[in-house]
Design brief:
The complex is a heterodimer.
Chain A (H helix, E strand, L loop, with lengths): L1 H13 L1 H26 L2 H4 L7 H4 L19 H19 L11 H4 L4 H4 L4
Chain B lengths: L3 H13 L12 H52 L5 H34 L6 H45 L3
Helix pairs in contact in B: 2-3, 2-4, 3-4
Classes of the chains: A mainly alpha, B mainly alpha.
Chain lengths: 123, 173
């Protein structure tokens, strides 16, 4: 057994660069696999706009808020609350202008998969 | 073992649930023919639609984060000034919980369904495509309800802020 191990050691020792490369490749493969699993499981893949086909969509994502901040410190009186309310209401207005995932989209007629009697009613 | 059994049962039900479609409506032959003829184009539309939906989801999510920061700042400042904000604090935590459900559960499921529906070989299985489409619409209704709930919570926060303002203007605090 000792002799066998010594032979293995000598074999590896004579091919150090090759084994180092193989080990590096194995480690890379394992780490990449773990990264890809995390990427998919944690839902990052879903939000990744750098995927092919999402070039146009990427430009439509609003990244930086242009709204003024409301300080979490300082005194609070009716005027301060009014200032907060103005920022808050403006943010709500922007939010409500976005899509609501309502039932208008994805209907049969839009996708041209409606039952024939509904798609083309008899006159 | 007895403790594990309910969890095993839950996992079993969760694994089987996508295979069971309680509200699958039988389709006529003519309808199936229409679906078969147009489903490939419909899948392309759904694929494009998925991208715009994701943009809306991202923009909504960013706006919710901004508003959440505003609410937290207001609560912190009110708290420093010894104003009772227990209702606002509770509302913010409820809103956060709902936002997490929307992002981590409901929308994620919806997006997965969108991905699944475009990968179905609809020419050979138009009924499966149509049933998936029906399930997708149901999930969209769930998301719509999440948004309505969150909008209601945000409106309620606004009302509570108005209450604080009234108290401060009247010098009751």
């Amino acid at each position: 057994m000792k002799q066998f191990l010594h032979k293995v050691y000598v074999y590896i020792n004579h091919r150090k660069p090759l084994f180092a490369l193989a080990a590096a490749l194995c480690i890379t493969l394992v780490l990449t696999t773990i990264s890809m699993i995390l990427y998919r499981v944690q839902g990052v893949a879903m939000l990744d706009f750098s995927r092919p086909g999402y070039e146009k969509a990427r430009g439509q994502v609003e990244k930086i808020s242009t709204k003024p901040n409301f300080s979490s410190t300082g005194s609070m009186d009716a005027t301060t609350v009014d200032e907060f309310k103005a920022i808050y209401d403006s943010s709500l207005k922007d939010l409500k202008a976005l899509g609501h995932y309502d039932s208008d989209s994805l209907n049969d007629e839009q996708l041209r998969v409606a039952a024939p009697d509904i798609a083309a009613p008899n006159p | 073992m007895k403790r594990i059994l309910p969890f095993l049962a839950l996992i079993f039900v969760a694994l089987l649930s996508p295979l069971v479609s309680a509200d699958a409506v039988p389709l006529s032959e003519q309808h199936i023919a229409v679906i078969r003829a147009n489903c490939s184009a419909a899948q392309q539309d759904i694929q494009a639609f998925r991208r715009t939906e994701l943009v809306t989801r991202s923009n909504r999510s960013n706006k919710y984060e901004d508003i959440l920061r505003l609410m937290a700042a207001f609560n912190a400042r009110a708290s420093i000034n010894k104003i009772n904000i227990s209702d606002q604090t509770l509302l913010v935590s409820q809103f956060e919980a709902k936002l997490n459900t929307f992002r981590q559960v409901d929308y994620k499921h919806y997006d997965e369904m969108l991905g699944d529906i475009v990968s179905i070989n609809c020419s050979s299985d138009p009924v499966k495509f149509y049933n998936s489409l029906t399930a997708l619409r149901d999930q969209r209704t769930v998301i719509n309800q999440d948004i309505k709930d969150m909008d209601a919570q945000l409106d309620q926060f606004g009302t509570l802020v108005n209450g604080v303002r009234t108290s401060l203007a009247g010098g009751n605090q």
